[in-house]
Specification:
The complex is a heterodimer of chains A (302) and B (47). Helices cover 75% and strands 0% of the residues of chain A. By secondary structure, chain A is mainly alpha-helical. Chain A is flat, with a radius of gyration of 20 Å. The N and C termini of chain A lie far apart (76 Å). Chain B contains one helix and no strands. Chain B is rod-shaped and about 60 Å long. The chains are: A mainly alpha (302), B mainly alpha (47). The interface between A and B is medium-sized, with 20 and 18 residues.
């Protein structure tokens, strides 16, 4: 009989591995959009409680990221981009990642409810469950439309931020929701175009894998053409001023111009896909600039 | 993982450093949580 004692997998992990489970880069965008929505909302919230609410949104997003990595460890191991994550690398035990995600998710929702209001807590819970259950478990491995519906998960934080400040939601936060929802497909599909080989290897039915490069480029242009009018809409409806409206139109014109370049591109290999890489990078700055313009508009008008 | 009894001094040192980093991080998080909940209580009482 062997007397060798195996150490638990967690013995290999340090604090950076737990931080990596929370997908901090995704968290940045979520926190920024939620913070902008909170600033743009008409209600008043104590600055300290607002900071705690933002922390709850960040931790909730991190919990969703941890649960996503727990469920996707098998396909993460197959892709170069994700193979070094703590679960496929064997640094954290799956059961511990699950417990970590559930504890953070529950804690963030409960704290949000106690600190701000239960409407914000409800939307935070919906956001976490939507990302984990609808996107990760249900859609991601089944349909090339995974990104379209999954985009809603990334859009919910604006509703949470708005509800935290006002206790309610109105038309403007839902237009901001629609903005992120429609921004997500061109953003992720431009990434998927030059990462197609990776997704194909992992068997994830991303649009470039299932329908080819040409169909993906058409869809990117279609969603870009839908996105820009929605971003401009709050200005003519009187929900924002023309500082935001003008910025949205100018930023959107560049977005469409880059989407047209992607549409016209015939590149077949990742190294030749400069138009796709340019749209992916610009889409990140675009969303940040759009929400910054919204906050600037509110500050100018107040 | 291999039996800890078979570890080299370098492997033992690396293991101890990882464990220490986790403990320090957990201590910081718990300390921050205590400060945050104290702050929430104060703000709620003043409001």
């Amino acid at each position: 009989m062997s007397t060798t004692t195996a150490l638990p997998t967690t013995a290999l992990a340090d604090w950076r591995d737990y931080l990596a489970l929370l997908k901090p880069r995704v968290m940045t965008l979520v926190v920024f959009t939620a913070w902008c929505a909170m600033l743009a909302a008409p209600g008043h919230i104590h600055p300290f409680l607002a900071a705690v609410a933002i922390l709850c949104i960040a931790v909730g997003a991190g919990a969703a990221g941890a649960l996503n990595q727990w469920y996707e460890a098998d396909i993460d191991a197959l892709m170069k981009r994700t193979a070094k994550r703590p679960l496929p690398a064997g640094k954290i035990d799956p059961a511990e990642a699950l417990a970590f995600g559930v504890a953070l998710g529950t804690g963030s929702v409960a704290t949000m409810g106690l600190v701000t209001n239960w409407a914000a807590a409800f939307w935070l819970a919906v956001s976490i469950l939507f990302y984990v259950v609808v996107y990760t478990v249900w859609l991601k491995r089944r349909t090339p439309q995974n990104i379209v519906i999954g985009g809603a998960a990334g859009a919910f934080p604006v509703i949470v931020g708005w509800a935290a400040a006002t206790g309610d939601t109105s038309l403007l936060p839902w237009l901001l929701f629609a903005t992120i929802f429609l921004w997500t497909p061109p953003h992720f599909w431009s990434l998927a175009l030059f990462m197609e080989a990776d997704y194909s290897k992992a068997g994830v039915p991303m649009l470039p894998v299932t329908h080819g490069l040409k169909a993906t480029r058409q869809q990117i242009l279609l969603y870009s053409l839908l996105l820009v009018p929605v971003t401009v809409l709050p200005a003519p409806l009187g929900l924002t001023g023309w500082l935001y409206g003008g910025s949205a139109a100018a930023l959107g014109a560049v977005f469409i111009a880059l989407a047209v370049r992607v549409y016209r591109s015939t590149a077949e290999t990742a190294k030749d896909m400069t138009a796709e890489k340019r749209l992916f990078r610009y889409s990140l700055y675009y969303l940040a600039a759009l929400f910054a313009a919204l906050v600037a508009d509110v500050l100018v008008r107040s | 993982m291999t039996d800890p009894a078979l570890w080299t001094p370098a492997e033992r040192a690396a293991f101890d450093a990882r464990r220490r980093s986790r403990n320090v991080a957990l201590g910081i998080v718990l300390g921050l949580l205590a400060i945050i909940f104290f702050g929430i209580t104060v703000v709620r009482m003043v409001k």
